[in-house]
Amino acid sequence: MKRIIWIAILGAVAITACNKKSSKSIYFVSPEEGSNVTVGSNLTLKLDAEAGAFDSVQYVVDSMLVGSKTDVNALSYSTQNLRFGTHLITAKIFNDGSATEVTTNVVVLPAQAPVKRGFSIVNTFPHDTSSFTEGLEYVDGKIFESDGEYGQSSLRIADLKTGKVLKKTDLDAKYFGEGITVLGDKIVMLTYQEHIGFVYDKNTLTKLKEFPYQAGREGWGLCFDGNYILNTDGTNNIYFLNKESYQKEKTLEVYDNKGAVTQLNELEYIDGKIYANIWQTDSIVIIDPKAGDVVEILDLSSLYPKETRNEHADVLNGIAWDAKGRRLFVTGKKWDKLFEIKIK
Asked: N or C: which end of the chain has fewer CB within 10 A?
């Protein structure tokens, strides 16, 4: 009797093993999930599957069909036309009238490293050390600046040559002021984590309206490219906001040849390129607004070395461009100096 039972058990195990073999899961062996690839290189799309495991397979990158196979051989696909960033790769597997899908993803990066640029100091101007600088603009011969921190945030107009604050409006203590940009006779300003923005009259600094901020996880930097308001939130994303509704219309992901460039902060738009402070560093990256790659990097570590800065001075932050005079200004949070520099 026991022998019959053991035979039955062994038979069941054999059937189970057979079922497991026939239902073996299929997955991508190439490319490995989350791997970095250089734009223009060829991807090898290959599944871990035995011959005859399926009737056919279709390979889809994002939403575009890039090829199909009726066997388990690899498919080669060029990344030449892919934008920088993460792309989803799907294998649609057909077998006996049914279909299943498996996925992987890759991150496409620029082929070239950013060009490193030097600089020279053209002029040095005074800067109000009470300003925890968030946004900086040069318009109509004056410096427009927003400063942060709860209970201390404000929007101000200052004289370039003397650093004297000519006009100022304080924010309610519950708001942490962030980036600004000037659009005609208005100033648009964000708050840090309050998910709200303000619009001010450029000349009087009178608040005209408020609007909900929903583009990013937080409000950081702003600038204007002539068509859109550009906005950062501390990630590697730059959001393009409608200049009238202030709502997000599209997103640009920023990468260099090593990966995502995060901590993008204060912005300026200069001669068709986006300039961005990298939070907590002495670097400014210069970004192609079409592709999202960092084409140049400006190292300002020797501009105002930390050991020589005034007391309570914080990190580099603030870029302003004088389009008419072709002058570039930079400063930092609570710095006593604002520099005019020239990129080499």
From this structure: N
Q: How close are the terminal C-alpha atoms of the chain, in Å?
A: 92
Q: How many angstroms separate the CA atoms of 199 and 202, rounded?
A: 9
Q: What is the pLDDT of residue 1?
A: 44
Say if residue 205 is exposed, middle or buried (CB neighbours under 10 Å; 0-12, 13-18, 19+): middle
Percent of residues, the chain, with pLDDT higher than 90: 91
Could you read off the pLDDT of 69-127 as tens digits, one per residue? 999 999 999 999 999 999 999 999 999 989 999 999 999 999 999 999 999 999 999 99
Matching residue, tokens 């800067």 = 127
Reported as type and span, the H/E element at residue 9 is helix 2-22
| Cα angle 292-258-43, degrees, rounded to a multiple of 5 | 85
Contact 215, 247 (CB under 8 A): yes
> What angle (nearest 5°) sits at the alpha carbon of residue 221, between those of residues 219 and 224?
120
- Rounded Cα–Cα distance for residues 185 and 187 (Å): 7
CATH for 26-109 is 2.60.40.10
In this predicted structure, what is the pLDDT of residue 25? 87
- Choose which CATH entry (1.10.10.10, 1.10.10.970, 2.130.10.10, 3.20.20.190) describes domain 115-343: 2.130.10.10
Contact 117, 102 (CB under 8 A): no
148/191 Cα distance (integer angstroms): 9
